[in-house]
């Protein structure tokens, strides 16, 4: 028997927000122990981890250019190669919508990695000070803080650890560098470290609205390391969540949150960013716009329904629409579903049209916060320290 197929007459579109994705620049100026020189695979994996975050985060960060301003600034980090606190990074140009991460390795005393955001030392007028401190995200310097606009930060990895640098084989011997890299970049992006995170901590719980929506209540934090979700040990499930499909881990797979204080070794799937970790990024102030991936229906006999699927994220509403022509006003809603971290589906009856176009949109569309223009006063100076958490551990419970 022969069948006619609908697929040649179907076109799929996925629409995303118009804001620019941020760029994460990795620099190795302070890799004084040569960790990344000795382990070039680590550089590849760290770059892949940064590449994962880039298209997810769409926000507006102002340019820091001391030459153009006539004023000065310098960054402060925990030196990734020596551990020196508030190490001064001479001022440099930070392009718009870019954050700069200094990476290195050192002995961390049994911890796998450490990460955090950078502090600042600034001299200039109030416009310049505000720009460097928050890069236009004025909620970052509110009291309490409601946003985050860093110039960058640091990540450091243990030089004595036996690492697994594979991005496809998490069961190989060694601590999975990919999961630790994703985790430490999460700290550099503010999870567990920045003032807008701290403002949402009450006792031993994180109360950010989006994380609460994912978890179903206040999210328990680890008592020993409160910059992390509660550890899953001694029969306690910790903070389970659904994986954002990446690095071979299926979308919707239940794992512990990436920001658990312990990264397990030998797991069947890579421990990756989960639904609750994405919610935490939104709670500290990042504008997220997860890329849309509308899966095309397989060829089916004439008259058979078309089955569409897409990975979802909690906090976004997904709308599947159909049009016979792409003309304005011709789109018809087929399905509206609230994201829940799983892969969602919709089965549509055959349109009966000679051709049909389908698209997937999200609401709310992530829009960047406007860059602020503060009132100018006379020359001033200010300093803020870098922020981080104690070393993140590795192992299995």
TrEMBL record:
Q: Which UniProt keywords apply?
A: Hydrolase, Metal-binding, Metalloprotease, Protease, Signal, Zinc
Q: Where is the signal peptide?
A: 1-21
Peptidase M10 metallopeptidase domain: residues covered: 145-192
Question: Which Pfam families does this chain map to?
Answer: Peptidase_M10
Listed Gene3D superfamilies? Collagenase (Catalytic Domain) (3.40.390.10)
Which molecular function GO terms apply here? metallopeptidase activity
InterPro entries membership: MetalloPept_cat_dom_sf (IPR024079), Pept_M10_metallopeptidase (IPR001818)
EC number of the protein: 3.4.24.-
Report the top EC class in one word: hydrolase
**Mind telling me what this protein is named?**
Matrixin family metalloprotease
Species this chain originates from? Luteolibacter soli
